[in-house]
Structures are given as structure tokens and as C-alpha cells.
């Protein structure tokens, strides 16, 4: 029974490696657009906006109790 579990774990690990290798290979064509200065600036602005929105929500939240 233990050997079957080890076999299933090995299959799962191999599938994970193949999956992440495929994702890495799929992003290579987008390397130029992802590495430019514009897209990281957009991501930074979006992330900053979300963090500020969460902070405002916490500040304006009324305590229950």
C-alpha cells in the first residue's frame, strides 16, 4: 500500500514539473512586452491602488461591539 502511495506521489511530482515547465516555456514569447518599462508601471499602479483601497476600508470601518 505504501509503495502505491509513493508511486502516486511521484506521478504528481512529475506532472507538476511538466506543468511549470510548460508555463515557463509559454511566457518566453511575451518576454519583450513583460520586460518593458510600461507594464511593470501599470502593475505597480494597480497594486498600489488596491492597497490604498484596503487601507481606506480599514480606516473607515466601524468596530462592531
Could you explain the architecture of this structure?
The chain has three helices and no strands. The longest helix has 26 residues, at 2-27. With 65 residues, it is mostly helical. The protein is flat and about 55 Å long. The termini are far apart. The model has no long low-confidence stretch (mean pLDDT 91).
Beta-strand residue percentage: under 5%
Structural class: mainly alpha
Average pLDDT metric = 91
Radius of gyration: 22 Å
Q: What is the CA–CA distance across the termini? A: 53 Å
Question: Secondary-structure element sequence?
Answer: HHH
Shape: flat
Major β-sheet annotation:
none
Number of helices: 3
Number of strands: 0
Percentage of residues in helical conformation: over 70%
Question: What low-confidence regions span 5 or more consecutive residues with pLDDT below 50?
Answer: none
Write the layout of secondary structure elements.
Layout: H1 2-27, H2 31-35, H3 38-60
Summarize this structure as a short list of keywords or feature phrases.
mainly alpha
Provide a short characterization of the protein structure:
The protein is mainly α and 65 residues long. 83% of the residues lie in helices and 0% in strands.
Amino acid at each position: 500500500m505504501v509503495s502505491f502511495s509513493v508511486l502516486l506521489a511521484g506521478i504528481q511530482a512529475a506532472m507538476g514539473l511538466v506543468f511549470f515547465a510548460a508555463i515557463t516555456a509559454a511566457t518566453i514569447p511575451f518576454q519583450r512586452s513583460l520586460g518593458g518599462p510600461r507594464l511593470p508601471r501599470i502593475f505597480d499602479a494597480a497594486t498600489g491602488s488596491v492597497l490604498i483601497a484596503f487601507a481606506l476600508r480599514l480606516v473607515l470601518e466601524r468596530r462592531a461591539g
